[in-house]
């Protein structure tokens, strides 16, 4: 199992509500992740095969394919209500395009893009950075059910967006990465101090 599938397998085991679809097992160009019927994330990938100069054996000079990330695209979940299967699946056609159509998802998209930019600056291996992003993203499964940690409401009217929005800002507890208890703060944009 290559490192990408290892990360996805580990991530899927966090919760029954996490469903992962790949366009292909051999030549994966995107991953679609759904947190139940709440939210979806599409991760665009491209592969490269690195060549080891050390090995004299021609066959072993080509390592496992490595994946680099092209884009993240947040949108609505396309899973039917009560979807049960929880294995990593292969599908043939994309079911989510890159159009958002909802300000709530756009605001989550901008958080993920800035998180990813921070990770790229840190020069970590992309597949392990993906693991961190996915772990953070998994907190959105309670997008419409977790109250704001500041005002304790779920939906409030956000004038800048012109609609009711849930606490869609997710901030990780800096001191609680490995410990028990709540891992992320949920906040409305207006409630971020
Ligand atoms: Zn709030």
UniProtKB/TrEMBL annotation:
GO terms for cellular component: mediator complex. This is Uncharacterized protein. Belongs to the Mediator complex subunit 27 family. It is found in: Nucleus. Keywords: Nucleus, Transcription, Transcription regulation. The lineage of its organism: Eukaryota, Fungi, Fungi incertae sedis, Zoopagomycota, Kickxellomycotina. Pfam families: Med27. It comes from Smittium mucronatum.
């Amino acid at each position: 199992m290559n490192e990408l599938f290892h990360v996805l397998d580990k991530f899927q085991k966090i919760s029954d509500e996490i469903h992962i679809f790949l366009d292909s097992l051999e030549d994966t160009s995107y991953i679609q992740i759904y947190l139940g019927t709440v939210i979806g994330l599409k991760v665009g990938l491209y592969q490269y095969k690195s060549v080891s100069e050390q090995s004299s054996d021609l066959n072993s000079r080509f390592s496992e394919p490595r994946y680099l990330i092209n884009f993240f695209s947040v949108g609505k979940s396309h899973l039917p209500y009560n979807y049960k299967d929880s294995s990593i699946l292969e599908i043939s056609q994309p079911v989510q395009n890159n159009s958002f159509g909802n300000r709530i998802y756009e605001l989550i998209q901008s958080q993920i893009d800035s998180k990813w930019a921070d990770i790229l600056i840190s020069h970590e291996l992309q597949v392990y950075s993906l693991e961190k992003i996915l772990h953070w993203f998994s907190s959105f499964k309670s997008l419409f059910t977790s109250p704001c940690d500041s005002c304790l409401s779920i939906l409030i009217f956000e004038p800048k967006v012109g609609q009711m929005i849930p606490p869609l800002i997710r901030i990780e507890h800096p001191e609680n990465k490995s410990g028990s208890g709540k891992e992320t703060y949920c906040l409305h944009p207006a409630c971020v101090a």
